[in-house]
Amino acid sequence: MGFKDLANFNDALLAKQAWRLLHNKDSLFYRVFKMKFFPNCSIWEAQDSSSGSHAWHSIIKGRDVLLKGARWRVGCGEDISNPQQQNEVWKLIWGLNVPNKVRNFMWRACKESIPTMHNLLKRKILNEDRCEQCGVESETTAHALWNCSTSDEIWESTPGFKDRSQLGASSIMDLINLTHEKRKNVDLLAMVMWTIWHRRNQLRALATYQQSQQSLINHAAVLRPQHHAQWRPPPANCVKLNFDGAVFPELGKAGLGVVVHNCQGNAIATLSEQAPLPFSPIIVEAMAAARAITFAQELGITEFMLEGDLEAVINSLRSAEASLTTYGHLLESAKSTLVTSNCIAFSHIRRSGNRVAHNLAKHAKHVRGLSVWVENIPPNLYDVLFADPG
Ligand SMILES: [Zn+2]
């Protein structure tokens, strides 16, 4: 790169800074500069001043680079746009090697016309725009598809986008440009964004469904006595571990599921683990009980209740005598590690009350080895936690 190129390169960088300043009016960056340098006009009219900082001089210089390509758009909601940039992004999107619905979606995202909370707020459909996924930030399009912390896991497992904080962009259009300039995979970016948006909508639909189900359940509870075993949270200062087993004979595997609830009834940890298939299903149940005990110890839990839906296993756990069953040794060795724990109770519940552990055990079919979640249950497990047993 020669000096001339370097100067052009710098100009491009400066223009980008100015572009961000123009676009993200909620940012602290924008507000600080506005207050200091152009309190009474837009950045387009702002004057360079000798008292300004180096950053301000740079931004003004970037703005002038940008002005060559930008013009006012009269009568449109967004006050400024750069037709040349729009044109390029449009071409880029329509040239992507992705399904048509994804191209369409990306173009709508660029035009700020997907129904994010922030866009609905702008259209006065909502009164606030907080993101329902993370509950922290305002759900702009860039937040919903890129910045939201609830998509960390997805981006971290996407090749080329592991460290997405390096691609700081305030709009999807910016981001597509940046991705393209850095020669990263724009197809992949589009597919992942579409998936994130799809997941967000599914989770919202699920939440609505659950609310309506809950009100149905509440309503039904008033009308008739309960026939189903109902799961209950543990007493104060105690947690409850529900466990269950599942068998996958076609894979030669078994599944172990454990869910830990606190006394408020919130799930604080889950485990889904594959194990070799033993010769009898009842042994899987004992393996799940033993795994629940070691899981509690791994989590540093000293006071807990253990609950399962197979009476024979619970009875063996309760019994002071050594069990002579085929799975007795499993329970004995798990129980022998319990000396340091307090407040332990074993309880039996009918299948319908052990739904979550059951789903986690079945989920182990798709898990390689072990899957453990502590505190924040990942959204991709919601359907496991809330699905009907089957
Ligand atoms: Zn969020």
Automatic annotation (TrEMBL):
It holds the Pfam family RVT_3. Residues 81-155 form the Reverse transcriptase zinc-binding domain. SUPFAM superfamilies: Ribonuclease H-like. One of its GO terms (molecular function) is nucleic acid binding. Residues 242-364 form the RNase H type-1 domain. PANTHER family: BNAC02G40300D PROTEIN (PTHR47074), POLYNUCLEOTIDYL TRANSFERASE, RIBONUCLEASE H-LIKE SUPERFAMILY PROTEIN (PTHR47074:SF48). This is Reverse transcriptase zinc-binding domain-containing protein.
